[in-house]
Design a protein that fits this description.
This protein has no helices and 56 strands. The chain is mostly beta strands. Among the domains are: 1-78, no CATH class; 125-319, no CATH class; 350-484, no CATH class; 634-685, Laminin (Ribbon), CATH 2.10.25. It has a two-stranded antiparallel sheet with strand order 1-2. A two-stranded antiparallel ribbon has the order 3-4. It has a two-stranded antiparallel sheet with strand order 5-6. Strand 19 (216-219) and strand 20 (222-225) form a beta hairpin.
């Protein structure tokens, strides 16, 4: 059972044939797999080249398949790699990896699969990776030990077996995450709550639950973003679904999340804002002019280089400190206040002042109470001249010294009596005291700036206010008087023997205005008349048989002023003459051959030395040969005479002689009385 074969170089040896080995010089059949062999035998005693004589138990040796091989029908066959097909009837060690087992994978297919707790790691069954331990990216899907974990990137290039969504690492085991409002462990991991927007929080005593985070609420088991201010909500008067510091309230017939009192919408009224605490007085704010973010009745106002919450118009800081107090409504005009001479607590343009009934908010100069002195008004700027007003005949709403009056079509502010518009009737003037009589003025022939019944006129020293005709300076021509109506005839006056205060053509006499000579009271001395020129002879008059309205020595007769007896019209019967005393006999006259200016029964004649009044033929000069007499009717023959005149007897042939114990006109010698006429005796013919 041996054969001579070349063994090395040129040498030959007798060697045992194939399947035999040299057993102490005898070629013996090699030992089959799992048969007993000698521990001291040659190394090639085992028939299968993939087997070796090995101790199997106690002192027993057998030809056993080498590591990596298993006996298959008496032949050592390479063990089966992980995930390679195997025989369900094969030996238990047919799988190469000791941590693998031939297992049914589907139908009649069997493979060497890694045992539970192991995974095929490049052909080697390796312990599966525990939760949160490092794993291999792109490794087998079952490398993670916990079936509810997956190899996932955790940071950069680092991968770990992390619990799948909905699970958390509960002491190395991936456990279902805890739903909202279910119990959780105070010492558990931060990921134990299922909803990412929930956290394990103490709810009462020692009880912990997964509760929704701030800004979220439990909506059907899901932590949902709380609804921001201005967003439609569903639970009236409930704060659950709204952001912090807001509640679901009815707004314009719908439900909306609305910030609670003391909070503001940081989106300033737009949908989707958070409710933040209102900023206190003096606090820094962001939106100039907005009241949204500040405490009630305050707004964001520029203060130096900053924006700060300050009390809004109509409100004041009740602590008088812009960073401490609260804003309360300003006290209106007429309302009781507390801080004398301080405007803080009062409406604009007013101040706390002491009045008859204590401290009250009072409008400043230039402003008026628009409630017209009733409690509770605002202080409005006084209305300028020529601007519309509302309170007829009232001064309250107009500028100083002006009153609300109708201009015919509407009410406008107009300067009060005693004042004039400094802008001379144009708008925006002020009411200035009228300049009194005698005071310097500026607008020639204009009455605007002067007291009533006066006008600006040029005087000896420039323009001065001068009383109109019919008025007098009640300061009697000293600077600073008013122009009062001249006092009419018969009215009491004060300045004796002066015409100043009386109507024209009158003077103050004995305390009464009296018409001057040549004038009469057109109210006929009943008081209150004007003094008008007396009506001259021949002028129409009204009061028959009354001399008051006619020139002296005349009387109203038949509606015409007529000279009295003994007087004549010095215009000689034309309209407008004076009644002067008739010229007596012998007086010089002017109207030749006219009787007008001479006493009755005389005529103006030029007899000796110019025109003189001479008695007519039937009359004689009562003054005899002296001038200045009247013309008396000559005495008839036989009638008594006074014997003082030489020509008093009518008949030229008679004389006044003593007779019958007196004097009579008797015919001269040589004449006789023939029926009252002295007739010459016949013997004298």
């Amino acid at each position: 059972m041996s054969t001579c074969i070349q063994v090395s170089g040129g040498a030959y040896q007798c060697t045992c044939n194939n399947d035999y080995y040299n057993n102490g010089g005898t070629c013996t059949n090699k030992i089959i797999v799992d048969a007993v062999c000698s521990s001291t035998g040659p190394s090639d005693q085992c028939k299968d080249a993939k087997s070796t004589c090995s101790l199997v138990s106690g002192s027993t040796y057998q030809c056993t398949c080498n590591n990596g091989y298993y006996i298959k029908a008496g032949t050592c066959t390479s063990k089966i790699n992980v995930d390679a097909p195997c025989s369900n009837t094969g030996p238990s060690d047919q799988c190469k990896d000791s941590m693998s087992t031939c297992s049914q994978v589907t139908g009649s297919t069997y493979q060497c699969t890694c045992n539970n707790g192991y995974y095929n790691n490049g052909g080697t069954c390796t312990n599966k990776i525990i939760v949160d331990a490092v794993c291999v990216n792109n490794g087998p899907s079952d490398q993670c030990k916990d079936s509810m974990s997956t190899c996932s990137v955790v940071t950069g290039t680092t991968y770990q077996c992390t619990c799948n969504s909905g699970y958390y690492n509960n002491a190395g085991t991936c456990t279902n995450k805890i739903i909202v409002d279910a119990s959780c462990s105070s010492t558990g991991p931060s990921t134990q709550c299922k909803d990412a927007m929930s956290t394990c929080s103490l709810v009462t005593g020692t009880t912990y639950q997964c509760t929704c985070n701030n800004g979220y609420y439990n909506k059907a088991g899901i932590c949902t973003n709380k609804l921001e201010s201005g967003v439609t909500c569903t639970r009236v008067n409930d704060a659950t679904e709204c952001v912090s510091n807001a509640a679901c309230k009815t707004v314009n017939s719908g439900l909306k999340c609305t910030c609670n009192t003391g909070y503001y919408d940081d989106n300033f009224g737009g949908n989707g804002g958070l409710c933040k605490a209102e900023i206190a007085l003096g606090g820094i704010c962001t939106v100039s002019g907005s009241a949204d973010e500040c405490e009630p009745f305050s707004s964001c106002t520029s203060v130096g280089s900053d924006l700060k919450c300050q009390c809004s118009t109509g409100y004041y800081d009740n602590d008088v400190n812009p960073s401490v107090g609260t804003c309360v409504a300003e006290l209106q005009s007429g309302v009781t206040c507390a801080r004398v001479n301080d405007a803080t607590e009062c409406v604009p343009n007013s101040e706390c002042k002491s009045g008859g009934s204590g401290l009250k908010c009072t409008c400043n100069n230039g402003y008026y109470d628009d409630n017209f002195s009733a409690t509770g008004g605002q202080c409005a700027a006084e209305i300028a001249l020529s601007e519309k007003c509302t309170q007829e005949n009232e001064t309250a709403e107009c500028v100083l010294n002006a009153v609300c009056q109708s201009d015919g079509s509407e009410l406008k502010c107009t300067c009060s009596n005693g004042y004039y518009d400094s802008n001379f009737a144009d708008s925006a003037g002020t009411c200035t005291p009228e300049l009194q009589s005698g005071v310097t003025c500026t607008r020639d022939n204009d009455a605007t700036e002067c007291v009533p019944y006066a006008v600006c006129k040029s005087g000896g020293s420039g323009l001065i206010c001068t009383c109109n005709t019919g008025y007098y300076d009640d300061n009697f021509d000293g600077n600073g008087g008013q122009c009062a109506p001249e006092k009419e005839s018969g009215v009491t006056c004060t300045l004796g023997n002066q015409p100043t205060e009386c109507v024209p053509n009158a003077v103050c006499q004995d305390g009464v205005c009296t018409c001057n000579t040549g004038y009469y009271d057109d109210n006929f001395d009943t008081g209150g008349g004007q003094c008008i020129p007396e009506k001259e002879s021949g002028v129409t008059c009204t009061r028959d048989n009354d001399a008051i309205e006619c020139v002296p020595n005349a009387v109203c007769k038949s509606g015409v002023c007529t000279c009295n007896s003994g007087f004549y019209d010095d215009t000689f019967s034309t309209l407008g003459g004076q009644c002067v005393s008739e010229l007596q006999s012998g007086a010089t006259c002017t109207q030749n051959n006219q009787p007008t200016e001479c006493v009755p029964n005389a005529v103006c004649e030029n007899k000796v030395s110019g025109l003189k009044c001479y008695c007519t033929s039937d009359y004689y000069d009562s003054n005899g040969s002296n001038s200045g007499g009247t013309c008396s009717a000559k005495t008839d023959v036989g009638v008594a005479c006074d014997h003082s005149q030489t020509d008093e007897c009518k008949d030229p042939h008679s004389s006044c002689v003593t007779a019958d114990g007196g004097h009579k006109c008797l015919c001269n010698v040589g004449y006789y009385d023939y029926n009252g006429t002295c007739t010459i005796h016949r013997d004298k013919l």
